[in-house]
Design brief:
Blueprint: E1 2-9, E2 16-23, E3 30-39, H1 42-49, E4 65-72, E5 84-87, E6 90-92, H2 98-101, E7 113-114, E8 134-138, E9 142-144, H3 151-154, H4 160-170, E10 179-182, H5 186-197, E11 202-206, H6 212-217, E12 223-225, H7 229-234, E13 239-244, H8 253-256, E14 259-267, H9 278-282, E15 287-290, H10 296-309, E16 315-319, H11 323-331, E17 338-342
Helix pairs in contact: 4-5
The protein binds NADP nicotinamide-adenine-dinucleotide phosphate and zinc ion (ZN) (2 copies).
One zinc ion is lined by residues 41, 43, 63-64, 89, 159.
Family: Belongs to the zinc-containing alcohol dehydrogenase family.
EC number: 1.1.1.2
Enzyme class: oxidoreductase
Length: 347
């Protein structure tokens, strides 16, 4: 085993502590990656907040990181030592089912191996995430980080970015598509940047009117205040695509009513049961969809697109020792728009 160090939730306490960790010895198709920067996703916060440590499992969050290859297994051909790489929230899949064959490993019928709190397909161990100094990953699930992308600000592309790229791309968003993004956070601000770069006139729907100037700076036309019934009524039926990134359970009705005839509400935020009033779909033949993460071809395409258009996240970079502060502030919606942890303080 290889020794490293990371930030782990201890028992039922929500605080993360610096802890020695072990990584597996490299399999033939594995890379060892020195993790330099790891984004703090709201999913990490959901995981930490609900963690009970049952069954002695361990939680080391982190599933959007960039770093440098430090060692390669003998069967690795795509990478060599020193290459800058990026890893998202999937680190393996069955490779044989229809979804994997279609390059949609994120929908693997045998369930993809998640970067943390997943189960390794070979040794059954629980995967430990990127809030650590080293990660060992199967080469197929590492992505070359395109030159020109700042490695700290690019880290959030690997979860937040790909999660909004897939629906924007597959819904055919382009010049003239009227897009609204609900929730201006980590996912939301990247959805705005990508939709704008795709040529789509884009608006933000937010409960935070003080984000209006940021919305415009990001390229949006404006911000609709989601708590103002008059503004919502004015925006009725106005958008071909609404990307809902809100991180708390909520009623979909107000967002469906923003969708134009035959348009789509893509719900990629808080996962869990939702209640839908069918007349909110019926009136205007609207569609409700969801998505999560992305396959390896889409992730590579998203990274190329972001490199071409100079898109990275707006980040606040903190030493990893301040991870608990980052999670507390994320809980309070006090981030513009993604915390990224600098792992170099773990050396
Ligand atoms: N589908 C997937 O694969 C996938 C991948 C990554 C994340 N997620 C999920 O997506 C959600 C967003 O993640 P994130 O990292 O972007 O979170 P985030 O940075 O905290 O952003 C979430 C935004 O939602 C809005 N919001 C938060 N609480 C709200 C409430 N109670 N009512 C209304 N709006 C609220 C806020 O925007 P405003 O201030 O503008 O209203 C906030 O900035 C999380 O639930 C996360 O678990 C899903
Ligand atoms: Zn995430
Ligand atoms: Zn599969």
């Amino acid at each position: 085993m290889r020794n490293t160090v990371g930030w782990q939730v201890e028992g039922p306490s929500p605080a993360l502590r610096r802890t020695p960790l072990e990584r597996r010895d490299l399999r033939p198709d594995d890379l060892a990656v020195r993790v330099d920067y790891c984004g703090v996703c709201h999913t990490d916060l959901h995981a930490v907040s609900s963690w009970d440590g049952a069954g002695g499992r361990r939680l080391v969050p982190g599933h959007e990181f960039t770093g440098v290859v430090t060692e390669t297994g003998p069967a690795v051909t795509r990478f060599t030592v020193g290459d800058p790489v990026a890893v998202g929230n999937i680190v393996d899949s069955c490779g044989e089912c229809a979804m994997c064959r279609a390059g949609q490993e994120n929908f693997c019928h045998a369930f993809p191996t998640l970067t943390y709190d997943g189960t390794d397909r070979h040794d059954g161990s629980t995967t430990l995430g990127g809030y650590s100094r080293e990660y060992v990953v199967r080469d197929r699930f590492a992505h070359a980080l395109p030159a020109g992308l700042d490695p700290a600000a690019a880290a959030p592309l690997l979860c937040a970015g790909i999660t909004v790229w897939e629906p924007l791309h597959t819904l055919g968003v382009g010049p003239g598509t009227r897009v609204a993004v609900a929730g201006l956070g980590g996912l939301g601000h990247l959805a705005v940047k990508i939709a704008v770069a795709l040529g789509a006139p884009t608006s933000v729907v937010s409960r935070s009117p003080d984000k209006a100037a940021d919305a415009r700076r990001l390229g949006a036309h404006g911000l609709i205040v989601s708590t103002d019934p008059e503004q919502l009524a004015d925006a009725r039926d106005r958008f071909d695509v609404v990307i809902d990134t809100v991180s708390a359970p909520h009623d979909l009705g107000p967002y469906l009513r923003l969708v134009a005839m035959d348009g789509t509400l893509s719900h990629v935020g808080h996962l869990g049961p939702v209640t839908v009033e069918t007349t909110d779909l019926l009136v205007g033949r609207k569609k409700l969809s969801s998505a999560g993460s992305g396959g390896t071809p889409a992730t590579a395409a998203m990274l190329d697109f972001c490199a071409e258009h100079g898109i990275t996240a707006d980040i606040e970079l903190l030493p990893s020792a301040r991870v608990n502060e980052a999670l507390d502030r994320l809980r309070r919606n006090d981030v513009r728009y993604r915390f990224v942890l600098d792992m170099s303080d773990l050396d």
